[in-house]
Amino acid sequence: IIERDETPMEKEIAGLHRMEFRFSDIFYFCRKGFEAIVEDEVTQRFSSEELVSWNLLTRTNVNFHYVSLRLTVVWVIGVIVRYCFLLPLRFTLAAIGITSMIVGTTVVGQLPNGRENKPQKGGICVANHTSPIDAIILTNDGCYAMVGQVHGGLMGVIQRATVKACPHVWFERSEIKDRHLVTKR
């Protein structure tokens, strides 16, 4: 077998060998992995180029080099408009929106519930383009049989579970056979 010198990494690993394993033993390998990712040959090939002149896009004036009075005036006006006009306007609009939402939902919550429009037993209630959240709200007062499209994932699990409680009709829109079965039911 060819004899070769030990690499620095092999020497460091040899120093880690002990009788019992400690969780901190993996830190060396994690550090080496991170270093390999950071110092890979691909990302070292590319670096951002330093701009020769200031172009109004930097957030601070650390790299500010005086170019012209006109450019400096435009930058100062931009800072004033951005932080003295637009920022307070955004905070004001956000505060107005949140306040109106709180007041509006409080007022709606105080309105009496009209039971006259609630679906009666044996009746039919049609609501096109309902979302799963709409279906949850509709079935909050009682259990209604629904007709709708089959979903996958978590919504599909919920649909299959609700079929056990009430005879819902779920169909796949793309299947013509499913459409015909739904019309017969």
TrEMBL record:
Q: Where in the cell is it found?
A: Membrane
Keyword vocabulary terms for this entry: Acyltransferase, Lipid metabolism, Membrane, Transferase, Transmembrane, Transmembrane helix
Q: Which domain of life is it from?
A: Eukaryota
Looking at the record, the residues that make up the Phospholipid/glycerol acyltransferase domain are 114-183
Q: Which Pfam families match?
A: Acyltransferase
Q: Which residues cross the membrane?
A: 67-85, 91-111
The molecular function terms in GO held by this entry are: glycerol-3-phosphate O-acyltransferase activity
Q: In the UniProt record, which is one GO cellular component term?
A: membrane
- Extract the InterPro entries matched here: Plipid/glycerol_acylTrfase (IPR002123)
Question: Where would one find the signal peptide in this protein?
Answer: none
Give the UniProt record's GO annotations in the biological process aspect: triglyceride biosynthetic process
- Respond yes or no to whether keyword Protein biosynthesis is given for this record: no
Q: Which residues form a coiled coil?
A: none
**What family is this protein classified in?**
Belongs to the 1-acyl-sn-glycerol-3-phosphate acyltransferase family.
PANTHER family (alphabetical): GLYCEROL-3-PHOSPHATE ACYLTRANSFERASE 3, PHOSPHOLIPID ACYLTRANSFERASE
Q: What is this protein called?
A: Phospholipid/glycerol acyltransferase domain-containing protein
